[in-house]
Specification:
- With 502 residues, the chain is α/β, with parallel strands linked by helices.
- The chain has 15 helices and 24 strands.
- The radius of gyration is 23 Å and the shape is globular.
Length: 502
């Protein structure tokens, strides 16, 4: 974040928040438009309950229009047939415009979902820019293949864009999760219909406008705000959508798969829930470092992360000192004003999610876990949605707080005797998105990394990867990978061309 006094001034951010007038229209075929039905929904800030905008509540008719525009642009080859160097230039320009609008986009993100403005500026916007730039640079560096044949034939293996892609993205990192789809979808030459969560539509709409300004042709990038059971369902069921990429809950992911099967058997990729184990062995020498990482793994972004380290598995000899240090860090993260750049812990996204998290806290109490920190709703006088960082100790692997994704700042602590028991506990669940192990023993580290059923395994760190490596899950955390060159596999078709030279 810029260190100027101006950007560290909470009063300035509040003044900007009062003045901002977010756009709430859909973007279809290069034009901002209301929903065809005229329906809208209120976009409410979890910071203090203020109404931010009336947003177009798109439904099946709007999906039809957006998909038709995307298909027409794809068939005209407005984007797909541009030279790789030209598509690269346009996507780099898009990234530049996003970077130039950093403060505007950060403010929209913070107002919309309640995350601290510090995080929006330092994490969400820069990561979005890096993602777009990375895929722009990849465009002219992806080569086809020549298969080995005899002298009488030439066999070419090439990648082609899949066509029209529907992307449904969540509310926890609205802009960044959108970029994880936008970057590879557009880099591969496809047309895109993006459906942001109804809880967080504002930054997606603005990204669509910036994409147009960068030179992405009309119809290639469309944005449809609306509810999942209307716009999202219609997009997943649409007969002219070639692929659907979804990030969100496992329950909804299962529905998306059913819709794809019921319609045109469109390609599906899912990044769903997680209940990630963070294993700390007694031989790890720096408990302070492990505690700091464990706290960040569950309390960053108010715990609203699919890869959150929400299950802390601690070897018994170090359980008490580690928990003391994590609790000390958690106490210092008292929920504060998200528009104050000094705030490290913001608001829960809305009242529905707040009640969900409080319900899990109540479940932890009723099932016999010991509350070690927090557990209360706070700052109710603001009209916003705030819950303290919460830690439970004495958790068993059969408790709901140890098995179900909470998507909030609630840490479930379990103890174990040896690595074999830790791995059994870690793999005993329906999710497999991320995992971590802290140990100074090389053999234990390799054993754990191989045994853990997760798409990402961290060793002596947590959440330390970047755009160059794939991200996705095992089991009911989904399939398909975001980030890295592997993401392009979801949005391209492999074609074999066999030429007879005889």
């Amino acid at each position: 974040m810029n260190d100027s006094h101006e950007l560290r001034d909470a009063a300035l951010w509040h003044a900007r928040a009062r003045a901002v007038q977010p756009g709430g229209l859909a973007l279809i075929n290069g034009a901002l438009t209301p929903a065809r039905s005229g329906a809208t929904f209120d976009c409410i800030s979890p910071i203090d309950g203020r109404k931010l905008a009336e947003v177009a509540a798109c439904d099946a008719d709007d999906v039809d229009a957006a998909v038709a525009a995307a298909r027409a642009a794809f068939e005209r080859r407005d984007w797909a047939d541009q030279a790789p160097a030209e598509r690269k230039r346009v996507l780099l320009r898009f990234a530049e415009l996003v970077e130039a609008a950093s403060q505007e986009l950060a403010l929209l993100e913070t107002l919309d979902v309640g995350k601290p403005i510090r995080d929006s500026l330092q994490t969400d916007v820069p990561a979005t820019v890096r993602c777009l730039r990375w895929y722009a640079e990849a465009i002219d560096k992806i080569y086809g293949e020549v298969a080995p044949t005899g002298p009488e034939a030439l066999a070419l293996v090439t990648r082609e864009p899949v066509g029209v892609v529907g992307a449904i993205v969540p509310w926890n990192f609205p802009m960044l999760m959108a970029a994880w789809k936008i970057g590879p979808v557009l880099a591969a030459g496809n047309s895109l219909v993006l459906k942001p969560s109804e809880k967080s539509p504002l930054s997606a709409i603005r990204l669509g406008e910036l994409a147009l300004a960068a030179g992405i042709p009309p119809g290639v990038f469309n944005v449809l705000p609306g509810y999942g059971h209307t716009a999202g369902k219609a997009l997943a069921l649409h007969m002219d959508v070639d692929a659907i990429a979804f990030t969100g809950s496992t329950i909804t992911g299962k529905a998306v798969m059913q819709y794809a099967a019921q319609s045109n058997l469109k390609r599906v990729s899912l990044e769903c829930g997680g209940k990630s184990p963070n294993i700390v062995m007694a031989d790890y020498p720096d408990l302070e470092r492990a505690a700091k990482a464990a706290a960040a793994a569950i309390f960053f972004n108010q715990g609203e992360m699919c890869s959150a380290g929400s299950r802390l598995l601690v070897q018994e000899p170090v359980r008490e000192p580690l928990l003391r240090e994590i609790s000390r860090i958690g106490r210092a993260l008292a929920p504060g004003d998200p528009l104050d750049p000094r705030t490290r812990f913001g608001a829960i996204v809305d009242e529905t999610q707040t009640q969900r998290v409080l319900g899990y806290i109540a479940s932890g109490h009723s099932e016999g876990a010991r509350l070690a920190l927090g557990g209360e709703r706070v700052r109710q006088d603001t009209g916003g949605c705030y819950i303290e960082p919460t830690i439970f100790d004495g958790v068993s692997s059969q408790m709901r707080i140890a098995r179900e994704e909470i998507f909030g700042p609630v840490l479930a602590t379990l103890s174990f005797r040896d690595l074999d028991e830790a791995l059994r506990i870690a793999n005993d669940g329906s999710y497999g998105l991320a995992a971590a192990v802290w140990t100074r023993d090389l053999t234990s580290a390799h054993r754990a990394a191989r045994a853990l059923r997760a798409g990402v395994v961290y060793v002596n760190c947590y959440d330390a990867d970047d755009i160059t490596v794939p991200f996705g899950g095992y089991k009911q955390s989904g399939f398909g990978r975001d980030k890295s060159l592997h993401a392009l596999e979801k949005y391209t078709e492999l074609k074999t061309t066999w030429i007879d030279l005889a």
